[in-house]
UniProtKB/TrEMBL annotation:
Enzyme Commission designation: 3.6.1.22
Keyword rRNA-binding found: no
Gene Ontology BP annotations: NAD+ catabolic process; NADP+ catabolic process
Protein name: NAD(+) diphosphatase
Cofactor: Mg(2+); Zn(2+)
Record key words, sorted: Hydrolase, Magnesium, Metal-binding, NAD
SUPFAM superfamilies: Nudix
Organism, as annotated: Methanolobus zinderi
PROSITE patterns registered for this protein in UniProt: NUDIX, NUDIX_BOX
Enzyme class label: hydrolase
Amino acid sequence: MIRECILSELDFLPLLTPPEKQGKDSDHYFVFKDREILLISDEDSIFLPSADHLSSLGVDLQREQYLGEFRNSSCFAAKIADDFAENDSIIFEDLRKLPGIIGESMAAVAGRAVHLLEWDFNTLYCGRCSTATFRKEDERAKQCPDCGLLFFPKISPAIIVMIEKDDRILMARSPHFPSGRYGLIAGFVEPGESIEEAVVREVMEEVGLCITDISYFGSQPWPYPDSLMIGFTAKYRDGEIRFIDGEIEDAGWFSCDEIPHVPGSNSISGELVEYFMSRSRT
Ligand SMILES: [Zn+2]
């Protein structure tokens, strides 16, 4: 693996059964209104609430789930009413801004929380017979009591690939991107194909190119709403850029100094582009 990622230990341990003693000051609550997370704001700092904060501020939790332990602190996810308003003590923040506020490791737990809350909310009823589902106690799953159908959290794998040609990489823009924004080729894996086949197909569909030397780079949970982004590097083999499926309106080869937009460094897209740039400078 190219990306530097040595996982000697995990910050977060997923668990199903909550501790007997809840409501400790060290507990963390990941409470969402739609896709924005509730944070406590005081004069000095902004932080995640504990159970005490929430009860003293009169926050009424819905669809609460126990997530597991983050560095020995119990973590819970819950939703609140859509009309709950900010006040002097409570603010709501975009999930993407969280790493800069509570740190990357804790923000990753927030991503896990919103992913599981949406799964729970989207599987209230059985899709086969419409009966209300229940949460299983022995695994992270829900089940229909009538027909027995199981509902596991949905994870949608998607690929993203940095394609190199000589000392340039391919960047492309979709019609819905903000003005001037370019990115790497990305797309969802289709049923029945391998991840590597998805890389080859997406590149052919979006820009009409053949690639070779496909190598795994790294992966990243992407809870917008339920993806796992799997990053690759590849080399151009042959073909001319052409837009086959209409998802791309412009694309080109960019050297390190010409890259029109460097994605955020807390995304695998940003890591891939920075990896290319760091090698170009050496
Ligand atoms: Zn059913």
